[in-house]
Amino acid sequence: MTDRSATPAKYPLLRTAGIDGLLVSFGERLSEPANRAALAFRAALESEAWDGVEEISSSLVSAYLRFDPMAVSHADLEARLRALMGSRDWLQAELPHGRRLHRIPTAYGGTLAPQLAEAAQVAGMTEAEAVESLASARVRVTALGFAPGQPYLGELPEVWNIPRQQALTARVPRGALVLAIRQFVIFSVTAPTGWRHVGQTAAPLFRLGAERPFLLAPGDEVEFPRVSEEVLARMQDDPEGGASWEVLP
After folding, report:
1. Which of 52, 163, 198, 240 has the greatest number of beta carbons closer than 10 A?
2. Cα separation, 98 vs 135, whole angstroms
3. Where is the Carboxyltransferase domain (predicted)?
4. Are residues 120 and 142 in the same domain?
5. Strand, coil or helix: what is 125?
6. What is the rounded radius of gyration, in angstroms, for the C-alpha atoms of the chain?
7. How far apart, in whole angstroms, are the C-alpha atoms of residue 122 and residue 104?
8. pTM of the model
9. Which residues, at least 6 apart from 221, have a Cβ–Cβ distance to it below 8 Å?
10. DSSP SS3 for 176
11. Full domain range(s) for residue 71
């Protein structure tokens, strides 16, 4: 049972994650300011390059730091983190430099993405309106997770704040563009999902051994322009799957 008398959490919030981890959170749920703050704080941590820190990553609203307890004390690292947390208003921080804008061609609906009509109906739109909305949206990679290189992308317009399905789809293919709760996910592997399969892409998200093994990085922005199923089929032979990118200013 939730204790409604408890004092609300104040952000940013620093918490311990095991004996060798610290987590700095900027909100309790996904929002544009909280995600921007998590990305900016992660970039700031990477630029600090503190001795003893072994891993830095970010999630939807948090930045995580893993350290070697034999190389740096928990108390020392906590003090440094608190100083960095208080050094600026992270909810107003600029996004890190070097981000990319990706354009990933997508076939919507049809035989490749059979749940577009259902998603459009739940959102109160026609299929044509849904495709226009989704194909014109620009979303941010808020986090990677679940499988190698698999992105969570958001936030979509409020009309796409639709729930997950009540039952799982047993299998969607690699490259499936699925949707729920104002977010996209592109599947980097074949897997079950509770999100609706609205589009299909051909761009490889993960390349083992490549200089940049993940196509997308947290903070990157992505557009999903519409192509036909026939055009997407031809893109299967393209090593980039028809995707292109440019560095954001």
Report:
1. 198
2. 24
3. 12-216
4. yes
5. coil
6. 20
7. 25
8. 0.91
9. 99, 100, 101, 102, 138, 139, 140, 141, 248
10. strand
11. 13-92
Quote the CA–CA distance of 161 and 132 in Å, as a whole number: 17
- Determine the pLDDT at residue 211: 87
CB-based contacts of 222, cutoff 8 Å, min separation 6: 101, 102, 103, 104, 138, 139, 140, 141, 151, 153, 216
Residue 198, Ramachandran bin (φ over 0: left; ψ between -120 and 50: alpha; else beta): alpha
| Range 95-134 burial, b when 16+ CB lie within 10 A, else e | bbeebbebbbbbbbbeebbebbeebbebbebeeeebbebb
Query: Side chain identity at 121, as an amino acid letter?
Result: Q
Structure tokens belonging to residue 63 = 């930045």
Number of domains in the chain: 2
Q: Are 62 and 34 in the same domain? A: yes
**pLDDT at position 8:** 56
Task: Please check whether residues 74 and 133 belong to one and the same domain.
Answer: no
Q: Do the beta carbons of residue 241 and residue 226 sit within 8 Å?
A: no
Q: How far apart are CA 209 and CA 211, in angstroms?
A: 7
Burial class (CB in 10 A: 0-12, 13-18, 19+), 245: middle
My answer on whether 41 and 121 are in the same domain is no
- 8-state DSSP, 106: B
What would the two tokens of residue 230 be? 């026939």
For residue 3, being part of any structural domain is answered with no
Q: Would residue 6 count as lying in a domain?
A: no
DSSP state at residue 3: -
Q: Could you tell me if 70 and 172 lie in one domain? A: no
Report the SS3 class of residue 249.
coil
CA-CA distances (angstroms) from residue 129 to 14, 86, 116, 137, 217?
43, 45, 11, 12, 29
